[in-house]
Design brief:
259 residues; mainly beta; Jelly Rolls; 2 domains; seven-stranded antiparallel β-sheet; 1 helix
Length: 259
């Protein structure tokens, strides 16, 4: 079979070029085509997802040790985009969250929504679970004056995890650690955010425990950032949290990935 293309993949040791050969078998439903690729151990296959997933810019790849991972077209790895329309992978306060269509949605047709304060959902079985050394990117917005939302990562149990928030209702970037049941805010910075506006938070989780967290508006301009150092957790489950407030929030998350 003739080589027809090259896929460049960002790996821990740099960018690797994967030669792509003539499309092979046609499978039904989810997997539509299979690209045969040359690997160190022989010829392998990369299943391509249907056009619905391709529209969102992801290529799902069967890996040897980590199952099927979704790679974004700019080398990002998908954590969750909620396009399956459910939150069956999550546990804890699942009754307060839902993956639904309807505005607001940033990417695709679905987004994660929550209308209850001080709740969370957690999963250890997502497409990819970030760990120290990764950079996490997520989109969020709050649509009323009670809206603060965030992500939880490095989650071991209810007493051990990291939490990074965009508190739209108080114009605050907050990042904290729960270590053995003792919670400490490591970053609490005033930033300028507006209701009913999408923002992107980027969490640089350094392998040595250095954190840089930045909030960007939809145009790519930074609206605030902060740094911290902590080594309490290096891996763990991932999830979403609604901040405490004095009323009923209107919260939305969309496309979460490692970049």
């Amino acid at each position: 079979m003739a080589q027809i293309a090259t896929i460049k993949v960002q790996t821990a040791s740099g960018v690797k070029a994967i030669p792509v050969f003539q499309p092979g078998d046609i499978n039904g439903n989810k997997v539509r085509d299979i690209l045969h690729v040359s690997t160190p151990s022989g010829t392998g296959v990369i299943p391509l997802t249907d056009t619905g997933d391709a529209t969102y810019g992801f290529l799902r790849v069967q890996t040897q040790n980590n199952g099927v991972l979704a790679f974004h077209d700019n080398n990002g790895v998908l954590i969750d985009d909620f396009e399956d329309g459910n939150i069956s992978e999550y546990s804890q306060n699942t009754g307060s969250f839902s993956a639904t269509t309807g505005s607001p949605v940033k990417y695709g047709s679905y987004s994660l929504k929550c209308g209850t304060n001080n709740e969370r959902i957690i999963s250890s079985t997502l497409n990819y679970i970030p760990s120290a050394g990764d950079t996490i990117e997520w989109w969020g917005r709050g649509d009323n004056s009670y809206s603060g939302l965030g992500v939880i990562f490095g989650y071991q149990d209810t007493n051990n995890y990291y939490q990074s928030d965009m508190r739209v209702h108080s114009n605050t970037l907050k990042f904290g650690v729960n270590n053995g049941g003792s919670f400490t805010w490591l970053i609490s910075k005033t930033v300028s955010m507006s209701q009913s506006t999408w923002y992107r938070q980027v969490i640089e989780w350094g392998s040595g425990g250095n954190f840089t967290i930045t909030i960007y508006d939809a145009s790519g301009s930074a609206v605030g950032s902060g740094t911290a150092t902590d080594t309490a957790h290096t891996s763990g489950s991932f999830g979403f949290t609604s901040a405490p407030s004095n009323g009923t929030p209107s919260l939305t998350w969309d496309r979460v990935r490692v970049i």
